[in-house]
Amino acid sequence: MITVDPARLSRDVGSQARLRGSIEALGATVEHPEHSSNPLATDNLRNLMLDIYAEMKWESLRRRRETAKK
User: Fold this and answer.
1) Taking the model in full, what pTM does it have?
2) I need a labelling partner for 66 at 20 to 30 A (CA). Which of 1, 21, 41, 57 fits?
3) Which residue has better confidence, 3 or 28?
């Protein structure tokens, strides 16, 4: 299970849904941090998810730039 607060990642509802879908496609479930019993794990996972989200945004930008060059 991955605990993450999607609202902290982005205010864009579409981005939140895509991220949640990506996580769940990997076979994990997404839980809101208020439902987690381990606050430290929640913070660590939130940081991990922020890193994953930033990487996804970077890749999206890179693909758009490559497409624009063609």
Assistant:
1) 0.39
2) 21
3) 28
